[in-house]
Predict the structure.
Amino acid sequence: MSNTATERKAFFKRLRGQETDGAEMSFIDHLEVLRWHLFRSVIVLFVVALVVFFYVNWIFDNIILAPTRNTFISNHVFCWLGHKLHLGDSLCMSPVSFQLLGSTVTGPFMSAIDISFLGAIIIAFPYLMWELWRFIKPALSKKEISYATGSIGWVSLCFFTGAAFGYFILAPFTFNFLAGFQLGHLGVYKYMPTLDNYIDTLTSIIMGCGLAFELPVLVYVLSKLGIIGPQFLIKYRKYAYVIIIVLAAFVSPSPDWTSQLIVAVPLIVLYEIGIFLSKKVYREKAKAEAQWD
């Protein structure tokens, strides 16, 4: 192990109240190490964003606007599923007809920048997690490091799965619902969203779902730390289900139960996976304590 890594491990041990071997490294030194991790992350994000910006027109036409079209693959799948289940066209989403507006001269350019960095964050997410892991690794014991084996892969998989769920399922449902929602019965409101509002909404859906799908990983970590347990998750399960169902009712494009289940089931499955992981952690802890006794 290098001298720098040894000093960083000693610093983290002191923060945790553990004995050290005398290696010294100041808080400023750790900020310097963190600065280099952040610097490399920013450089990678910038390079990937430049590549995305080079293809931004194609991305805007074929990816950003795709969830609003009836040719979107999710629309075909859900429409086919509705017919197979003998639900008629209840799961078929009509195309969202609108023309995006802009109120500033720099609107299109700034939106292109937003799209570029959104794409860069999604593409470079595993690398960002790797840089974070490299920074915190010296603070962990060999046992804790063994627990974290493969964590970057699992965190990235959960994020990409959530981002895909948000883009292919939640986004078309959301835009279809919002485009058809009317306030009042006089028809005085004309649906004409701005370009930045559309991109911000799509970004919130994709990133929000990507982070929401990290729930199993978060539960696993909190269970390892002893902050929460399976009893807590089971106790509040019914309240979590109510929140998920209410959320699905607002997002679904139609009031029938089938479309609501399509949105609610993945979130319920995530919650149940969290309970399973928490139980597994506590069983392992109980087994280790029994062996110690």
The two ends are 34 Å apart (CA to CA).
